[in-house]
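tmp note - PRC-barrel domain-containing protein
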Amino acid sequence: MEQQSTQQYTEIDPSRELISSRRVEGTSVVSRDGEKIGEVHSLLINKLTGTVSFALISHGGFLGLNESYHPVPWSVLDYEVDAEGYVTPLTRQELENAPKMKLDDDERPCRWDAEEIEGYYSNLDWWGL
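out:
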């Protein structure tokens, strides 16, 4: 997957490497076979390191009703110009089975949540490839 990322960056104008989080929000997330499985709702940033840890992916529902929200490790999303979105090894079923989050302020993730989330993804067959 790392090689794929490097190739994509060479196709993007170097003066446009940085992007506002507002432009990331709403971007499609597609599986490797091209199926749209969700959209980026928001980014979860580690306050200590300043790096993006997870993208909160909205999935299902209609016009914002009955959507579910799944934190996905940022490291498994690769922006691809041709796909006009982020490509991931996740399948629809894997996303549906992934840990969910609520959007309330009271439900913000903590370190223990991050460990549970990473535990789910680390058990998938493609993890670490």
